[in-house]
Write a structure and sequence with these properties.
Elements lengths: L22 H31 L4 H13 L2 H14 L2 H22 L3 H29 L5 H30 L4 H21 L17 H6 L4 H15 L4 H12 L9 H23 L1 H18 L6 H27 L8 H29 L2 H22 L4 H5 L1
């Protein structure tokens, strides 16, 4: 696969192109902000609800958490493929956002049934799977390559501001109305609907006009063929392997609360620390990725995550250790989330942009699903400290392996 100069990212070490970002980036940022308020209200509520109200075990919690994070996997591929095939990324994204909104009304119907909650979580995350690749493709296609790190940084910052507000809204509802689940889900639904309205009204598609070929360039074979490109294959493999040894956010917060000894009632607020740091650092990390290279910044983010796992091993560290861990956790997301998409986007042709991003995202999502389930079993089979130590050792090995896998800087190769 050969790339045109227009699709190539800037060479490592060169400054990114200046200028304003397109309005699509900010409109999609507003959509993600509202949707993340909705989603993070549920995320903040579920650990307390499942572990302490329903008294589920770690294995059951790991299965549900893995489902929550991994149910998007195959549908990311479907969303990317349909988006490219129809050349309608906005329409496919709307279907995904709409499905997630409807799922919020189904949560109260599931009651205390683990199977029911699992089904609703799967439907909710299916919506996320459908929308993620088309949304990122809209950003990638509307932004000059030299500004992609900045564009994804701005989008993720707005997204994270919603993630910051979500737990606060949940905390306020629980404080004012008690621990009943229905008000949380109804308010979450309202925010999700607002996000759909903004998407329908303000987001414009920037699909490049091309002469209609005799045969569509978008097919399942063409999507699978993206992995024949060495750069796409290697970054997909590296992201997947790192995802396989990444402890899910829910487990990070649960383990951090227990090992640090901070009060249990603060557990729903721990995601705020991660979100606040992510919000502050997303744009600077995006600019750094454009300036110094996207793979080095992505790799450095995982080195920071190594420090977070080390903090989980400090017994009774109290608030100082908890703050340090949340700081590292937020910086990890700022250095990796949007940066990975900014790197991967220019590696694939515009006609397959959503599909190419979905390939990378799917590998990572499947790995994190397996990781969450496996960590739940580890916690059930051994002490919390032993489980974290095992993951820490595996993480060091995978980090070293990914450095060897991409020992030649991918940004330089892509340029």
């Amino acid at each position: 696969m050969y790339l045109t100069t227009r699709n190539s990212p800037p060479r490592t070490g060169q400054p990114a192109a200046g200028g304003k970002l397109p309005s699509t980036v900010f409109a999609l940022g507003a959509v993600s902000l509202l949707t993340d308020v909705s989603a993070e209200m549920i995320t903040a509520f579920l650990p307390v609800y499942l572990l302490y109200t329903l008294q589920l075990g770690y294995v059951q919690f790991g299965l549900l958490d893995g489902l929550y994070n991994g149910a998007t996997a195959m549908l990311r591929l479907l969303g990317g493929f349909v988006s490219d095939r129809l050349r309608k990324p906005k329409m496919v994204a709307m279907a995904g956002y709409g499905a997630s909104a409807l799922a919020k009304l189904a949560f109260p119907l599931a009651g205390a049934s683990g199977a029911g909650i699992g089904g609703v979580l799967a439907f909710d995350r299916a919506g996320k799977g459908l929308r993620t690749a088309p949304r990122d493709a809209l950003i990638s296609l509307s932004t000059p390559p030299g500004r992609l790190g900045r564009a994804f940084g701005v989008h993720r910052a707005m997204d994270t501001f919603g993630a910051l507000l979500g737990p606060l809204v949940t905390f306020w509802i629980l404080a004012e109305l008690g621990t009943g689940a229905s008000p949380v889900f109804v308010v979450s639904f309202c925010f999700a609907v607002l996000g759909c309205i903004v998407l329908a009204t303000f987001v414009r598609e920037h699909v490049p006009p091309t002469p209609k070929p005799a045969r569509s360039p978008v097919s399942w074979r063409a999507c699978a063929g993206l992995l024949r490109d060495r750069r796409v294959r290697r970054i997909t493999l590296a992201a997947g392997l790192l995802g396989l040894v990444t402890i899910s956010d829910a487990f990070v917060f649960v383990v951090l609360q227990k090992t640090s000894g901070v009060p249990l009632e603060l557990l729903p607020l721990l995601p705020l620390g991660t979100a606040l740091v992510f919000l502050a650092a997303a744009v600077p990390m995006g600019l750094a990725a454009d300036r110094f290279g996207r793979w080095p910044v992505f790799f450095a983010g995982h080195v920071l995550l190594l420090g977070v796992y080390a903090a989980l091993l400090v017994p009774n560290g109290g608030f100082p250790v908890a703050v340090a861990a949340l700081l590292g956790h937020g910086l990890f997301y700022a250095a990796t989330d949007g940066v990975l998409m900014a790197y991967a986007g220019p590696l694939v042709p515009e006609a397959l942009r959503a599909s190419g991003l979905a390939v990378v995202q799917t590998g990572q999502a499947v790995a994190r699903l397996l990781s969450s389930v496996a960590f739940g079993f580890l916690l059930a089979a051994m002490t919390m400290r032993s489980a974290v130590l095992l993951v820490l050792g595996a993480f060091v090995l995978v980090l070293a392996g990914s450095a060897l896998l991409l020992r030649r800087r991918p940004d330089a190769l892509a340029a």
